[in-house]
Structure formats: structure tokens, C-alpha cells
Amino acid sequence: MQKKLRFIVPLLLILSLLLPGLALAAKKETTPGAPKKTTVTSPTTPTEPAPTEPVTTEPTTTEPTTTEPTTTQPAATEPVITPAPPPSKVILGYYPVDYVGDKTAYNSLVNYGSSMNAISTFTYLVDGQGNLTGTVPTDGLTLAKSKGLKTYALIHNYTNGGFNQSIASSLLGSPANRQNVINQLKTILPANGYAGVNIDIEYINPADRANYTQFVKEVKEALGPMGYTVILSVIGKTYNDTTSNWGGAFDFNAIGQYADYVQIMTYDEHYPGGTPGPVASIGYVTKAVQYTMSTMPKEKILLGIATYGYDWYGTSTKTVNYLTVPKLLSQYGVTPKWDDVSKSPWFNYTDSYGRSHTVWYENPQSTGYKLDLVNQYGLGGIGIWRLGFEDQSFWDVVNAKLK
User: Fold this and answer.
1) Bridge-partner residues for 162, per DSSP?
2) Is 250 within 8 Å of 212 (Cβ atoms)?
3) Which residues, in sequence order, are CB contacts of 316 under 8 Å at separation 6+?
4) pLDDT: is 332 or 53 the higher one?
5) Where is the GH18 domain (predicted)?
6) Residue 397: closest CA among 360, 361, 374, 365
7) Which of 13, 115, 261, 317 could form a disulfide with 231 if both were Cys (CB 3.0 to 4.6 A apart)?
8) What confidence tens digit (pLDDT) does each residue in 156-205 have?
9) How many other C-beta atoms are found inside a 10 Å radius of the C-beta of residue 50?
């Protein structure tokens, strides 16, 4: 027992000396403020980026997702679900001045200007060398612009009561003469505030077909980049006529590529000096529209609308219109008839000299059938020949159908 104690006592003495040191070391090892290099170099540090990932992804997982509905709401409330209104139709009125002091077209513009959006002034006569002459209707231009209408300068070859074919041939067959017209237009259009040019050259030799197309191309290439519109007035054709003096020169497929608008003159189906009949039967007009649509974009087509008719008697013919027809009906006590095939009104009467007259004309009813074609086929609009021959009833049907 004593031997054991001899060994135990010294052992206890040694332990009593070592324990305080071990306790102090343990305390230092667990002190929070003590730096530990092992936390930097420890093999566990490569996994530490995992705790930082939520920090880098928080913007996309929280705020963006909560704000997305607000960014899409405006698109849902904007008029995306409502179809845009169709572009307005061109309602172009032809504005001639037949003599000094003639206010016929001007008065129409005063009374009905709010029902149209453009006029072409029948102003500039072109000669064979390409010279343009004419008196600008400044009063009409000023009035039209005050009403917000676009105005176009119309150039034509109508002289001494008819369209002159030799003028057309001389002009169209010469590059220099064509350029002369273009150079003058570059001055005339801006000087008078015109929005463009309306080319109304008629009764062209069919041999000048390619020359006419070239002229249209040159006018468009010169004036288009300047911001001007090019409108053509051409005969309403129902097939690819290449030989007649009235329609043969107009290559619809070609000119439709260059012109901004092509106004087809779908009237004078029956004409002065010919046999009496409808000025613009619905059958003829429909066929003309369909043929033209096969050659060019429908939006470029302006349908010709007449405000007149003809009174045939003997070998003579005179023009009637919305203003004069009621006077004839009243004077001779006549009731007009309706031809349902052509959708046209007509009547007969005998004058005080015993001469028999046959009258075919246009009225709101016949005009309405033609305006329906504009909507049915989605055409660009109408070209009205002419201002001053119509009354309020004409514009009532235009407003009802196209506005």
C-alpha cells in the first residue's frame, strides 16, 4: 500500500502542476476574438461561395419577378386589342377654271370642301416641247389649303376643244422635252404649295406606249425623292388594250409600278357624238376595277366618279349635271326612269322645236353603287370629274359611303 502511495503522490503532484496550463490553453483556443488562420486556409473554404449565392440571385428572384406584371400591364390596356381604323380614302375633286372669272369649282369648294381631302387644278397646258402654260387659281389654292386639303397641279394636252395627239407624241417621244416638263414642275410645285402633280395626257398614239411609261418613270424618279406625289388620269380599261387611241398607250402593269395613284376615268362609256346610253354603267365600271386590280395594287386605284351626264338630240350632245337635270324634269314635266341593269337614271323629252332628246345622267343612287365598289374592293379612293356640277345630295352619299 505504501509502495503504491509512493508512486501516486508524486503523480498527483505532477498533475496539479500541469492542469492549470492545460485549462489556460483551452480558454485561448475558444476565445471569439482570437484569429484563426485555419478558417482561411481550411479545405472547407471552397464551399463558402454557396452561402453567398442567394445574395447575387436576390434581384432576379425577388424584385424583377414582382415588377414584371406592372411592366406588361400597359401593353394589355393599350389599343392592341382594338383594330386600327382603315386609312382614309382619297376624295379628290377636279378643279377646272373654264374662263376668266369662272367660280363654278370655287363655289363647290366653298360649300363642300369639308367633304373632300384633295383637289387637282386643271391648270397647265403642255406643248410638244414640254413648256407649261396656265394661270394658277390662287383663290382656289388658298381656300383649299385653309380647309386642310392637298392640292395637285394637273398638266394636260387639252386645247381647242380636244386632246391633242401631236402634242402628246412630240412631248413623249423626246427625252429633252420630257425633262423640260420635269424641270418646270420642280419650280411650279414648291412655288404654289402643291403636294404633287396629276398627269392627264389623253388621246395618245398607241405607238407612244413605251414613251408614256418612260415619262411617268422619269417624273416619279425626279419628284418622288422631293416628297411629291404623282397621280395619273387614264382611261378606264376592261382589258389590256394596246391599239386604240384612247387606251392603247396606257400600260397599266408598268405605270402602276411608278405612280402613287392611278385615277381610272370610268365614265364617258357613252359619249358626245355617240349613241345614247349610260355614262358609267355598273357593269362597265366593275369590269374596269377588276381589270385594273389585276395590274397594280388596289390601294393605288382612284375610281373615277362623274357628276354629269349627256343629253343626246339629233346629231348633237350637250352636258347635263346635278343642277340642270331637275330643271329639265320640271320644265318638261318628265318623270325619270331607272335602268336596273346599268344602275343608271334616264329619261326622254321633246323640246319646243319638236326635237326628241334622250338623257342619261348620274344621281346619288347611281353614284352610291359605284362608291360601294370602292369599299368592296378596298380601292384607294375616288377622283371626281368635276367640281361645280354637283349639289348637296352628291356629297351626302359620298359622306355616307366613304367617311
Assistant:
1) 159
2) yes
3) none
4) 332
5) 89-403
6) 365
7) 261
8) 999 999 999 999 999 999 999 999 999 999 999 999 999 999 999 999 99
9) 8
SS3 402: helix
Q: Rounded CA gap, 286 and 303, in Å?
A: 10
Going by pLDDT thresholds of 50, 70 and 90, the confidence category of residue 403 is confident
Contact 402, 382 (CB under 8 A): yes
CATH homologous superfamily for 90-307+363-402? Glycosidases (3.20.20.80)
> Angle at Cα 79 formed by Cα 77 and Cα 83, nearest 5°?
145
Helix (H, G, I), strand (E, B) or coil at 265: strand
Q: Cα torsion at 27, 31, 34, 40 (round to 10°)? A: 100
Of the candidates 272, 257, 367, 259, the one whose C-alpha atom is nearest the C-alpha of residue 315 is 272
Query: Mind spelling out the 3-state secondary structure of 102-135?
Result: CCHHHHHHHHHHHHCCEEEEEEEEECCCCCEECC
Q: What is the DSSP string of 71-87?
A: HHHHHHHSTTSSPPPPP
Angstrom distance (rounded) from CA 302 to CA 382: 4
How far apart CA 157 and CA 163 sit, in angstroms, is 5
The three three-digit cell numbers of residue 202, written as one number: 389623253
- Under a CB-based contact definition with an 8 Å cutoff, are residues 245 and 157 in contact? no
Q: Which percentage of the chain shows pLDDT scores above 70?
A: 78
Q: Where are the domains of the chain?
A: 90-307+363-402
Residue 196 CB neighbour total at 10 angstroms: 23
Asked if residues 150 and 116 have their Cβ atoms less than 8 Å apart, the reply is: no
Q: Are 311 and 320 in contact (CB under 8 A)?
A: yes
Q: What is the C-alpha to C-alpha distance for residues 244 and 58, in angstroms, rounded to an integer?
A: 80
Q: Quick one: which of 359, 238, 371, 357 has its CA closest to 295?
A: 238
- Residues contacting 174, CB < 8 A, separation 6+: 129, 130
What does the buried/exposed string (b/e) look like for 105-131 if buried means 16 or more CB atoms within 10 Å of the residue's CB? bbebbeebbebbbbbbbbbbbbbbebe
Name the pairing type of β-strands 356-360 and 344-350: antiparallel
Cα–Cα distances (Å) from 170 to 162, 254, 259, 338, in that order, read 17, 21, 22, 45
The answer to whether the pTM exceeds 0.90 is no
Catalytic residue numbers read 202
C-alpha cell at 340: 336596273
